[in-house]
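Hey all, sorry for the wall of text incoming. These are the two entities for the joint prediction.
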Amino acid sequence: MKAMIWKELRENARWALLAGLGLLMAELYALSMEKALVGNSFVAVSLCGENFLMVSAFGCAAVGAVLGALQILPELRRDQWASLLHRPIAREKILAGKMVAGLLLYAAATGIPLLASIVYLIWPGVYPAPFIPSMALPALSDGLLGLAFYVCALLVGLHPGRWLGTRGAIVLAAIGLLMAHLEDGWPFLLPIIAVIVFCVAAWGAMRNPVAQRPWFSRLAFGAAILAGVQAGVVLLGIALRAVPEEALFGFYYTNFYIAIDGAVFLQKQDGKGGFELTDMQGKAVTDERYVGNTADRYSLYPSLLADRTIAQGRRFLRNERSSQYRVEMIQGSYETPELWYRVEGQEPYFVGYDTLSRRPVGFLDREGFKSPDAVRQPFASVPQGEMLQMTPQLYWIGPQILSIDFLDRHVSPLIDVGTERIYGAQKVPNQSEHPLIAVALGAGIQIYDMKGAPLFRIPYAYPVDRWPNVGITATDDLSRIFVEYNNYAMSRDVVVHLDVLDGQGKRVASYPSPRERNVPAHKSWNQWTADLLKAPAPSVLLSIWNTHRQVSVEADYASGIPPALIPEFERMLEPGELAALGGWTLVLCAISVAWARKAGLSTARTLGWVGLTAIFGVGGLLAYRLSIDWPVRVRCPHCAHRRPVMEGACPNCLAPWDVPVANGTEIFEPA
Amino acid sequence: MKTLIWKELRENIVWAVLLMLALGGAEVFALHQQNQGDPQYIFGMTLCKTTFLTTTLFGCAAAGILLGFLQVLPELKRDRWAALLHRPVDRGQVFWGKALAGTVLYLIAAGVPLAFSIWHVARPGNFPTPFVPEMVKPGVADFIGGFGYYFAALLAALQGGAVLLRALPLLAALHVSFFAVDQDLFRVAVEAAVAMIVVLCLAGWGAIYSGETVRRRPWLARLAFLIVAFYGACGIGDLAKQLGRMAGLVAHPTYSYWQVLDDGSPARFNTVNNVLVSVTDMKGKPFADAKYQGDRARNHALGMNTATSHIGNSHRFVREPYNPEYRESRAYLYANEPYSHPRLEQWFHLERDAHYVGMLPLEKTEFAVLGADGFAAPGTKVRPFPDDVSLDQASGDLLVIAAPDSLKFVSLSKREITELPLPAPPPIYGVAHAWARIGNRSEDYKGVAFGTALAVYDLKGQVVALLPYRHDVDRWGRIWLGVLNSRDRFVVRYDPSDWIDRKTRVSMPSFVDVMDVKGNVLTAYTVPPGPPSVSSQRWSSFLAARVQGPAFFFGEMLYRRVGAALGSTRLRNLLAEQLGPNLADTRKVGSVLVSVALLLAVVVYFWARRAQLPARQVWGWTAVALGFGLAGLIVFWLAGARPRTVRCPACGQRRRIDEEVCGCCGASWPANPSDETAIIDPLTEPAALAAAS
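and here's what came out:
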C-alpha cells in the first residue's frame, strides 16, 4: 500500500499545491476585505466573518471534490483502470491507499491556508479585533465538510451510474449537505455522518456492481441516493417558497399603538395594506397625528427589557457560525477612534482596539480598566447588557449592575439586587436625557433612578414563564409607563398583554390580547406545490407534535434545525392540506406499485418501494427507482409478456430462451 | 456548411435547452426574490436588481463558455478531430459552421431566458414597479458579453500551447466584463463587447488552421490573436488588481470639515482614514463640554442640508447633473417611500419621461400618474416636469415641487396640490430638508432658497421664518439650513458658490449665522478654510496606473481630446480634470510609466535577441513592450515565438535548430559520425557508385 500512497501523492501533489494556493489567496483576500468592514456591529469578524466562512466552506468543498475526482476520473479511461487494478493487492487496499494519500493532500491544501489565516489575524497591528481559539471552530467544520465532498467525489467516480441518475443524486446529496452546513445545521455531526456513509458506499463501489455489494454498503449507497433526491426535493420546495406573494410591508396582526401622549389604541391592517386605528371601544381615531402617514413619529415603541428565550432569539439573529457568539463588538464604528469588544467564553472580559493602529488600547476586567500589557482577571460570568445601548452602558454580572463609559475608561457599580436574579435591564425612555433604569427580576420590575436608588417595583401581572418577553417604554415626562408581555422574541407582531402604569408604578389600565390575524393567509400555487413536495410521514407527525406542544415555534431555533428548513418543520398543516398531502401520497404509492409491476419486481421489493414512497413522498419514489439494479426486460417470444433478460425462464409462461437460429457465421459449434 | 450547422445543432441542442432552463429558472427566481425591508429598492428594481444582474452577468458568461467548450473539446479527442476535418470544405468553413450553430445555441440558452424575463416584467400585474423599456440595457449588455465568452471558449479550445496562453481569450473576455460593469454608459459597454466579439471570432477562425503556431494563421487572425493576448494580459491585471486590494492604502487620507453643533456653534471635525480623531472649536481647542469631546460630538452635530449651490445666474454656471450608471435602476426610475394611509401606495419617478407613476404594491397595478399639470388617470400621457423643477418627498405622503416661479405641496394620498404663496420674489434656487429633534421624534422643515432670503416652511405649508441673506450670496451662494432643537432658532451657513473654481473655493472662509424666526442674526461666525485634504489611493491602483502602457495612457488622453472636439461634454470634463486640478499627478504618473515602459522594452529586446528571433521581430516586440508596458511584456512572454536553440559546435553560441547556418558564425550543421548502427548508407560520390556497380 505504501507504493500506492506514493503513487497517488506523486500524481496529485501539484493539484493539491495549486488548490492550496488558490484557497490561501482567497482566504487572505476575504480577511482583508472584512478588515474594511470591522466597525459595523452587524458584521461578524475575523475567522467567523461571512466572507471568510463563505470562502472557507465553498473552498474546502471544492478542494475536496476536485482532489477526489482527480484521483478517480482520469484512471477510469481506457486501460488505466485495468493497469491500476492489475496489482497483487485487494481492491480495498487500493482504495485505502488512494484515500490515505488524498487525505494527506487535502489536509495540506486546506490546513495550511487556515493556519496562515490565523497567523494573519494574530499578527500585531494587522487586524483590529481579538482572536480566540474557538473562533476557528466554524472553519474547522468547513474542513470536515470538504472531507465529505472528497469522499463523495470518490463515490461518484467509482459508481458506474448515469450523471442524470444515481451519480447526479449523489452530487445532490453533497449539495444538500453544503446548504445545510451554510444554514448552520449541525456543523460537525452532519459532515461526520456524511463521511461515514459516503466512505462505506465508496468501499462497496470499488468492489462490485450494486447488487453484489455487502448489505451495509448497499444500505449506505441507498441512504446517499435517498439523501440526494430528498435534498433536491427540499431545495425545490425552498425555492418555491422563496417566491413571495404577500406584501413587503406591515403587520398581519392587530396590535397596540401607544401614542406619545399615553393613549393606547388598536392598530389593524386592512386588506389593502392600509391601517385602521380604533380606540379600545372600537371607535375610529381621527387625530391626524396618529392616523396619517407620519403616525410612526407619534408613537412609542417598547424596548425589550427581558427575554427569557434570549438564547433562541440570538440564535435566530446570529448564525452559529457568527463570531458574535464568541467576540461581539459593543462600542464604536469604523469612524470612531476606538473599537470595544466583549470576549465571551470561559474567561470573559472587554477589550478595546485602536481603529487606526489596530492594536489593543486596554481592557476591562473584574478589577476595572487596565493597560493592554496588564494581567487579566476575567469576570465570573459573561457580562450581559441592555438591548439598546446608550452611554453610560449598563452591564450586569450576577446580581450587580455596572455603569460603564468606555471612552472615559470609567466603570462603577450601580445597583446590587442581592439574592435576586437579573433577567434584563434597560434605561427608559431609552433616548431620554433623564431616564430611569428598569431591571427585570424574578418577581417583578424594579425601577431605579440613574444613581441606582430604588424608586418602586412593578409586580408582573402575567405569568412570565408563559409570556417570557417583557417590553417597556414610557412617556417623555414619565407620567405613564407601559409594560407589554409577549412570547415572540423577534418582533412585536404578536403582543398578548399590555399594562399601563402611572409614574409611581400603579396599574391604571390593563389590556388583554388583541391577537387576531386580519390578513388571511393567502396560499399561492408555489406554496401548494412546495407543500406537496413535503415528506408525508414526517409532516404529519410534526403537525401532530406541533399541535400538542405548548412552547413557541421559536424553540425550533434552539434545536439545531437549519433556519432555511424551519418552514418545512414549523408550520402545522391545516386539515385540507393534510388531506391533499394524503391524496397525493396515495397517487405516488399507486405509481410505485404500477412501476414495480411493470418492472417485474417481487412483492417484498414492491412493498418496500411503497413504504419508502409513503414516508418520503416524491423523494422516496425516485430514490428507490435509482438505488436498485433495474432489470432490463424484453418481450417473451412465447407469451409476449415482458421478461427480464437476466433470468432463464419467463416468469409468466416459464418458457426458456429460444436457441438462436444458425446463419453460418457462428464461430462455435452448436452444443 | 449547412450539414455542419445541422450536425452542431443536433449534437448540442440538449445542452442549450438545459442551460436555457437553468438560466431561465435562475433569472425568474432572481426577479421574484425580494429584499425584505427594502421598500425603496436600494438593491435595484426588476431587470436592474442586483441579484438579477448577478445572474445574467455570470449566467450568460457560463452559458457561453460551456457551449464553446462543448462544441470543440469532445471533438479534439482521438480520431474525432480527423473525422471533423475530413470533409470537402475549408477549415475556415468548419469554424464558421460551428460559430453559426453556436450563435443559434447561445440565443436559445441565454437569449430566450432574457427575452422571457423582459416579457414577464413588462406584463402588468407581475411586479409592483413600473416597467421602463430602457431597463433592459444591463441585461442586454450581459447577454452580449456572454457571447464574447462563447467565442473566447472556442478560441481557448482550438488554441494549442501552455495553459496560460490558452486561458488568454477567456481573460480577455473577463477584462471586457470588468470594463462593462464599471462603465457609466450602456453604449460604451456594448461597443467594447462587440469589438471584442469580432476580434475573438477572427482569432478563433485563424486558430482552426493552426492551433499550435500563430505564424501559420492568416494575417488578420494573427493580428486578432495579438489583440486578444494583449487584452488577456489586461484581464490578468484586473485579477491582480482585485487581489492587490489586500495591500490596502498607500497612505492614510486626512480630511477636516466644519460641522455646526446643536448649540449653533461651529466645530472642526478632523479625520484620518475616516476615523474622527479630534473635534476643536473656532480657536482650535477642544470643547470644555464633555458631550462635544471626541467621538461624542458626532451625536450632537446638527443635521444640515444644502438648499442650493449658487444664487443667481450671472456666471452662466450650470451644475453637472448626476448620471447614474446604466446598471443602476436609478438611471431609469426611483421609488418614493411607500405610505399606508388610507391604503398602501407607492410612487415612482420615471427619469426619461420626468413624471411620477403611482403603483399599488399589493395589486401590482398602476393607479395614477402625476405630471407637470397634476394628477391623471393611469396610462394617460402627461406633460413632464421641466428640468429646472426640484421634486422632493418630504415625509409620509407629502411631495414638494419647487419650480423657479412656484412652490407646491402635494398630498399624494389625497391627490391634492396646494400652491403656496411665496414670501420673497422668485426665482427659487433650491430646497433643503431640515429637522429638529424633540425627545424621541423629529419635526421636519423645508428651507426654500430665494434670491434674497431663505424661507423656512413647516410641513403644513406655513412659513415659519424668513431668513434674509447676510452675506454676498453671489460668492457665498451654497446655502445650508439647520434647525435647533428649540425650533425657534435657525442656522444658515454660507459656503463659496460652486461657480468659483475649486482652488479658490478651498481658500475662502464660510459663514455661519444663528437667526431667530424674524431673521435677526443672534450669533455670527466666520469659519476659516480648513487645511487641505490629503487623499490616498490603494496600492493596487497606484501600481496599476504606473505599469500601464504609454499607448493606453496617451491614447486615452487623445481619445478624450478628440471626443471633446466632437462635442462630448463627458470627455471634455474628464480631460479638463486630468489636465487641470490633477495635472501634477498626470505628469508624475506619465513620467513613471514611460520610464517603466522603456525599462521593459530593454528587457524584451534582450530577451528576444537571446531567443534568436529575427531582427524584425526583435524590434517589433520591443515596440510592443514600449507601447503597452507590462501587458506588452506578458504578451511577448506568452504569445511570442520561441525557436528551439542548441549550442553551435563551431562557435559555442546558441543557434536555431530550424536554420541551416549558425546565426553567429555562419557554420553549417556537422555530419553525424557513423557508429555502425546507421541503417542508411552515407551519401557517396557518383564516381564511386559507378565503380561499385
